[in-house]
From TrEMBL:
GO terms for molecular function: electron-transferring-flavoprotein dehydrogenase activity; flavin adenine dinucleotide binding. SUPFAM superfamilies: NAD(P)-binding Rossmann-fold domains. GO terms for cellular component: cytoplasm. This is Uncharacterized protein. It comes from the Eukaryota.
Amino acid sequence: MAGIESASKQRKRVVVICGGIAGSLAAKLLQFDADVTLIDLKEYFEITWASLRSMVEPSVAERTVINHKNYFKKGHVVTSPSVNITETDVMTADGDVIGY
Ligand SMILES: Cc1cc2nc3c(=O)[nH]c(=O)nc-3n(C[C@H](O)[C@H](O)[C@H](O)COP(=O)(O)OP(=O)(O)OC[C@H]3O[C@@H](n4cnc5c(N)ncnc54)[C@H](O)[C@@H]3O)c2cc1C
């Protein structure tokens, strides 16, 4: 029991800044092994390379936008621009200070 408590206390805290393909994939993969916070301007991930097709085929457009919470169920999403980073924290424009 003590071993389990100690392991959970040592759970890493990770802050992923930007929820494009790179950040979203990182957050998705890390969410079960760490306490992950994803900071993005938007609540959703956008498949940018499908945007041209969306213009000529509007039915594709709705499938090119995926809410972060749909694939990132265990983590925390903060929707605000990150404005500063230190060795221990990330700050957002909304005033959140997220430690890692
Ligand atoms: C029309 C189009 C077609 C493309 N076609 C191809 C293709 O065929 N093949 C290919 O390999 N690549 C293609 N690309 C390029 C590809 O989309 C990018 O290389 C890729 O999306 C980059 O991924 P990324 O995660 O680095 O950044 P992005 O996808 O640019 O994501 C950046 C994220 O950062 C967030 N963000 C920005 N500033 C902040 C901030 N201060 N705080 C918090 N969040 C912030 C944004 O909201 C965004 O979600 C295409 C791009 C476009 C626009």
